[in-house]
Amino acid sequence: MRSLFISVLLLTFNSLCAQIKSYDSLNQAIHNAGKDNKLLSPLQLQLGIAYFNDGSFDSALLFLNQAVTNAKEIKDNATHIQALNNIGNVYADKGNNTEALKYYQQALPLAEGINNKNYVGEIQKNIGALYLSWKRFDEALSFYRLAKQTAIENHNQLLEADCNNNIGTVYEQQLKYPEALAVYRNALDYYTASDNKSRMAMALSNVAIVYKFLQKYPLAIEYNMKGLALAQQRKSQWTEAAILNNIGSIYGISGQYDSAIFYCNKSIDLSRKMDAIEIVYNSYETMADAASKAGDYKSSVEYYKKYVASKDSFLNAETNRQLSELQTKYNTEKKDKQIAAQSFELTKRNFLLWIIATIAVLGSLLAYNYYKRSTLRKEKQLQLEVLKQQDLAVKAVLQAEENERKRIAAELHDGVGQIMSAARMNLSAFEHDLQLTDSHQKLKFEKIISLVDDSCREVRVVSHNMMPNALIKSGLGNAVRDFVDKIDSRVLKVDLYCEGLNERLDASIETVLYRVIQECVNNVIKHSGANHLDISLTREAGAISVTIEDNGKGFDNSRQENFEGIGLKNMLTRIKYLKGDIEFNSAPGKGTFVGIHVPLSQ
Prior knowledge:
With 602 residues, this protein is α+β, with helices and mostly antiparallel strands. The chain contains 22 helices and five strands. A five-stranded mixed sheet has the order 1-2-3-5-4, with helices on one face. The radius of gyration is 33 Å and the shape is elongated. The protein starts with a helix and ends with a strand. Mean pLDDT is 79; it is low at 1-21.
């Protein structure tokens, strides 16, 4: 054991020394090159790539940007393209996909300009990966297939295998698991044959993910562990972090809570060092789910908060807008170059004709552009007005519904309730006038009195449910608590957790959330067969979150007909009215989770 430890220590030390020696050699070569950009820019490119492979992103960006500047100055297109592409790779691994796309779009026309198929295919593949991360599957597949075709034409088997591996990720997102497994194995076979360990690790992890979705958990763990060993051996930190998260997810699904938390924490620690926020929020989501399944609901809520915070920092409201602007800019630049090339050829044949045609085309474009902008502006105004009217209509319907509830509640309490109470008093008074000597007649009379008492209580209960006094007087938290306290714990045990509800919310928000929670609880009682229910109401900065989870028989939430009932439609409509989100997560035999998030700033 001691000799093995020493061997491992020596191997690690020798590897570290070799890495330091490599960095020192490149830095010395850069120093010796001085101001000779022909020597300097390729060396800066190699040093930037070395730092990138080691996970030192800031150092990588420093040298890669220097390589871009120097290569551009001496018109070294090959170095320029590679540096731009690798800068895009750095930003992609950091989770800044919008910035990554900007650099890929700078590199692609340069690669096409020098007709370098290897560079073109590699950049097309990288752009496809960005669209995959944005869940834009059709565009991702389009770029992957372009890259694969380029690789086939250029006999680049490694690039072809990479494209197959990436196409598999799209199929996996589209739930086409057999197709995904086929292309993953195709890529893995080539990586194994060529002894490409870093890509083998990635492909093994992808195969493991498919086995996880197919619920073949032992196989999924086996392939992930193989991939993890290779990633650690190659010091591929991003791949290592992603595989650690995958392992944690599998243990969470299979009920091994402690193992799930252990591997997810390792993934988060490693991801934070690289600023890989996408892996961080995926790990927190896995931990929240694992904690919930283990019954540790407090930890589940905390992990879910961290998941939401991490995801919000990665995906923001500007992403799609910036993506569209960048894509439009890229397409415009490409078209402009094509038009310029065609114009140059026309100029050589007939300069005058070129001028007349250009003026005509520009005039037509300006007129068409003006027409389109005017049309789009009108359409936008119309859409805004339609949305406004829809909001007003929904608000009016909900307000009318609540007013009708108040009216019916008042009628029941003050009208029917008073009549029933008067009838009870009259019957009691009439009892003294009757001479009920027969015990059988006396028993019948007492049953009549009992039925009237039961009717009075039922009227009060219905009136209270339609417009509970606790909601009007004490607020949402107390109203929900008053509601669940009336449920027989022998039939359904309810645990209620409230936080941050000391101050009253807007009346419309309290009313809508109360009705939605009431509908959820009634659904659990009527349909789920559950014996335990957890309700959590948490007020945070600018928002309120509600989670409702039962241990009942669940349902298939992927089937559309399960969402066509009046109750679920009313819930969706009410939460949409508050500009909030509602999520249903359920499966047969696994209970049901309902998550609600409502912004308080609306």
